[in-house]
Amino acid sequence: MSDEAEGCPACRGTGHTRARYILERLVSCLLIAGADDANKDRPRAQPGRPHPNLDGMALHLPAGPHEPPDVVWSGTGMAELTTGLAGRPPSGMGHDAIDRWNSTDKIVRAAGLDPATWGICPACKGDPDGLLQESAPTTPPEPT
Ligand SMILES: [Zn+2]
Hints:
Number of strands: 2
Bound molecules: zinc ion
Helix content: 25-40%
Strand content: under 5%
Radius of gyration: 20 Å
Number of helices: 4
Largest sheet: 2 strands, antiparallel
């Protein structure tokens, strides 16, 4: 199986510009941090470490005079922030794609941009596989 995206070559099948793709990846990291915060009491594969997708993102607090550096995911209020962005709290599994869409939409609006048009691939108009054209209403068949 090929790793190459199918559909529109301009957006590699995402339907978005690179800017929107990057924003959605960053929003995903925010939502993961919120879910990590909300579910911080759950047993972890790596106790004391943030979600693997956040590891290495320079999220560590500076060391205090008598404390080692610490990760910021625990008790940070990120769950409150991401619940506000997503419009609902994360489930035990975290935030889902609808939460990411809602959060991205709010951030784009906060920037004074229209989420219906900002970051949409200009080549395929957000329809990288042409599915919207295929499902567009057609002329009904003539009655027989
Ligand atoms: Zn495209």
